[in-house]
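Record Alcohol dehydrogenase, 348 aa.
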Amino acid sequence: MKAMVYHGPGRRSWEEVPDPVIGAATDAIVRVDAVTICGTDLHILKGDVPEVTDGRILGHEAVGTVVSVGDAVQTLSVGDRVLVSCITACGRCRYCRDGMYGQCLGGGGWILGHLIDGTQAELVRVPFADTSTHKVPAGVSDEQMVMLADILPTSYEVGVRNGAVAPGDTVVIVGAGPIGLAAILTARLYSPSHIVVVDLADSRLEAARRFGADVTVNATKQSPSTVVKELTGGLGADVVMEAVGVPQTFEQCVELVRPGGHVANIGVHGAPATLHLEDIWIKNLTITTGLVDTYSTPTLIELVASARIDTAPMITHRFTLDEFEDAYDIFAAAAETGALKVLLTAAK
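=>
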């Protein structure tokens, strides 16, 4: 088969590799029908995730068709359409029993495209298949479903839920990439009074308005702090979400939140960020971070299936699997290309 293989910082290749095989009785092999690229993959290619070694197949988001299952797999059959979750869960360890699948001690967690070969390939081996996949409901497209592998549960759990968004809140989201847009979609479920989005690219701020932001700020042209203070009578935002993953935006989030408010860090950071405790200790802030657990994926699937959330508009560029190199180039240059999420599908 062919797969997108990491060969060290800045080096990747769509190349021939051996087909995956069942390695444990709980495995399934899934034919990849639709797959996307995550901002975390770009962090890996920059060298920000040193655990990813030369030769690793990238990717942790896909929708596909089951082609074989191990003897212990009980809920899947050959031919089932499934969402492959970005988080793998053994289902038995302490953390899995608490719904904290991202911290799985039994061989799961974030392993696809990280510690084992991932989904940017024609076939993928999925460990613990019963607890690491979700069947695709009738009437839900691959395009809609693949957005539920990572960005929707990540934004919802690490941003909206951890940030404790409540009705009437002023919510600020710093970063209008796919994670920021997913945070808009899922924050709206809680009826905040305002959703403010801060970014540097007008194209992404326009997308934020389409997804439901009522205030947008280009930080190269306006002061986000001034805008938020004017909107809140000088208080600051109730909840601020960091959806970029660089030190400057984290520090900006701490500046924008009100005393007693909440900073929810969603972004993946590749460098240290300074926490100015000498200034903020007196503000009674709550600051949370987190790796997605995907406990919310069944709920989000129901919301998509019932048309309460539409994820398909996130996809702006479409390719076949053999165009993976082009897809990476387009996605990495999002400020110039306007790319939000790219979708790659198997040739029919």
